[in-house]
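Troubleshooting log. The previous run stalled partway through. Resubmitting the same two chains, unchanged.
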Amino acid sequence: MKISIRVFASLRDFMVPSLELNLLPGATVGALLVELCRMYPPLDTAIFQSPGTVREFVNILKNGRNIHFLDGLVTALQEGDVIAIFPPVGGG
Amino acid sequence: MTDTSERYQRQLPLIGETGQERLSTSRVLIAGAGGLGTTIATFLTVAGIGFIRIVDEDTIERNNLNRQILYREPDRGERKAEIARQRLVEINPEIEVQALCTHIDDQSIGGMVRGMDIIMDGMDNFSTRYVLNRAALRQKIPFIHGAVNGFYGQVTSIIPGKSPCLRCIVPHPPSADKVPIIGVTCGVIGSIQVTEAIKYLTGRGDILTGRLLLWDGFRGDAAIINVVNEPDCSECTGEWAGERG
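Second attempt completed without errors. Output:
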């Protein structure tokens, strides 16, 4: 199944701003992140605090919904989902 | 032509006499008089917003001057909100500006936002942004969120009851550490925030409700991602137990 990924802000230092990935049916957000980190190894420390634990302030939205309000890393993906990943900025 | 209509002559074709009248009778709270706040205050002032309340407890430091455009070298050590007030009424004597040199927290915010038509986010930390978010939800006042870090920025317009709140979009705040900031990014993001305010107040255009604009000045790219209201967001229902992160 095809999943669209868009990343923003400093995460763009580590990978392309957007891409599409073909994942096996039943894949989760966690599996998607692992695949991205395999493709772009420097992304790993930018996203993960430790293996399996995403840095708290890294926002991951599935079709506009923060996975914090879904099932976190085990949130299931479906064909055509759009995943947006951004570390929010906080200065002013 | 009156002095007033001459001042706004070039924007009247955009918003009309009625729109200008709406701006002149509007009351706007600017929370923070830093990089974002001074940009926001400047453009609200020249647009002709009738009443501006600008709040900041800090004093002007030399390292503010790369981005906080209302301040000058001799202002160092002076209170930001008061100097901002003085500069704003020099720029446009037809408006009223009130300076509050005070701390913003859950106790003080209620009185600050009461009677305001819109709340502008000029803060430099998320814990105070969540205070503004809660006040906006409680008093049903639109809250125009903006934030910056380096060449990156974000903007969204939170309309209570119609759009996701700030906590729906950013449930966990970024680190409160000081971040690199350059004036141009404050200028871009603050200007977009004021564009949002003018559109909301005059009822024109499409505002960024349910949409988060992400600015990447480093790559010359702006993107919008759709965001939705979260039924389980404790902030929207007032059940958030306390700050995290």
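Takeaways: Strands of chain A lie at 2-7, 18-22, 48-50, 53-54, 59-62, 65-66, 82-86. Chain A has a mean pLDDT of 95.
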